[in-house]
Amino acid sequence: MSATNEKSADHVVLRVGDADVSVSLTDAAVIRTALQEYVKQSNYEDRDALLPWTQGTPRIDEDGTLRIGPWVLGTDGKQLYLRYREPPGQFAGKAHKAILKKDGDAWSVSDLVMERIRVRK
Average pLDDT in the 65-80 region? Predict the structure, then answer.
């Protein structure tokens, strides 16, 4: 995740492409609704298990990370996403990554993918 140097109680700024994108707590509430709707309407493998984890209250923690329940806002430099990393099992874990899109003031989820995470033993 690439956050900004700017810390605020009501927004975070992340670098996406050549632009800084500001995401406020108001935006986060809209993003949460978009995430909930996307998961509800999807055929995603873990849909039913994931739905309760989309209910969290948006907040910005002390290190400047925007969170929606266990989901964390991040960027890979090309796109914004929310990631929920499940607690690892004995040998592997998984994370769920919701790709975000913004069109004007409207936020949406364009895709939801699973990432396998190897646990070191």
Answer: 95
